[in-house]
Design goal:
The complex is a heterodimer of chains A (113) and B (111). Chain A has strands at residues 4-7, 10-13, 19-25, 31-37, 43-51, 54-57, 64-70, 73-78, 87-94, 102-104, 108-112. By secondary structure, chain A is an all-beta fold. Chain B has strands spanning 9-13, 18-23, 31-38, 45-50, 53-56, 61-64, 70-75, 84-92, 105-110. Classes of the chains: A mainly beta (113), B mainly beta (111).
Chain lengths: 113, 111
């Protein structure tokens, strides 16, 4: 089984809809991240969390919100989706021992029409 | 966070050694250097990390000069499956930090 899972893997939604992307991990890591990747570009950090009570904004948090329901779960919400939020979204985790290494999920391809 | 600069793209052939250099002029004393590999539609995968001198693992080598203002990822005898985007990252020597990805280097390997 994969260490970091994301659901859904693909999603098409309409402008104005609220949508939630979910991330779960079995690595026991306390640090979790949400990134966005646009075609041909690198990853941009949306939000990150160091533990259940700690949430931090990344480079591009506007239009997004997150929830850390448990150590193993970190959800990303688009309150009112817009077409320029069409992208590939990745969740990642990081532990304190091998702190230089992030583990990424398989990604969620989101299309907003 | 120190800014990194790396080539946008590189081409090579199977069996060749590929070296990708990353510039990080503003690297701080507590920063470490990490490289990731990303295949299309997949999440990045950690390759190697180092602080200074040379590090080697089963996948690659990382060369870091004494001033640490640059680093070179070396992939020995590449194959078609090494075609990917490679990211150089510089981050604080601490787990209590965010990690910022740049645009990476798109490596294309030809037969």
């Amino acid at each position: 089984d994969a260490d970091v899972t994301q659901t859904p893997r693909n999603r098409i939604t309409k402008t104005g809809k609220r949508i939630m992307l979910e991330c779960s991990q079995t690595k026991g890591h306390d640090r979790m991240y949400w990134y966005r990747q646009d075609p041909g570009l690198g990853l941009r950090l949306i939000y990150y969390s160091f533990d259940v009570k700690d949430i931090n904004k990344g480079e591009i948090s506007d239009g997004y919100s997150v929830s850390r329901q448990a150590q193993a779960k970190f959800s990303l919400s688009l309150e009112s989706a817009i077409p320029n939020q069409t992208a590939l979204y990745f969740c990642a985790t990081r532990g304190s021992r091998r702190f230089y290494e992030q583990y990424f999920g398989p990604g969620t391809r989101l299309t907003v029409t | 966070l120190a800014k990194t600069t790396q080539p946008i793209s590189m081409d090579s052939y199977e069996g060749q050694e590929v070296n990708i250099t990353c510039s990080h002029n503003n690297i701080a004393t507590n920063d470490y250097i990490t490289w990731y590999q990303q295949f299309p539609s997949q999440g990045p995968r950690f390759i190697i990390q180092g602080y200074k001198t040379k590090v080697t693992n089963e996948v690659a080598s990382l060369f870091i000069p004494a001033d640490r203002k640059s680093s070179t990822l070396s992939l020995p005898r590449v194959s078609l499956s090494d075609t990917a985007v490679y990211y150089c990252l510089v981050a604080l020597y601490s787990s209590a930090s965010k990690i910022i990805f740049g645009s990476g280097t798109r490596l294309s390997i030809r037969p």
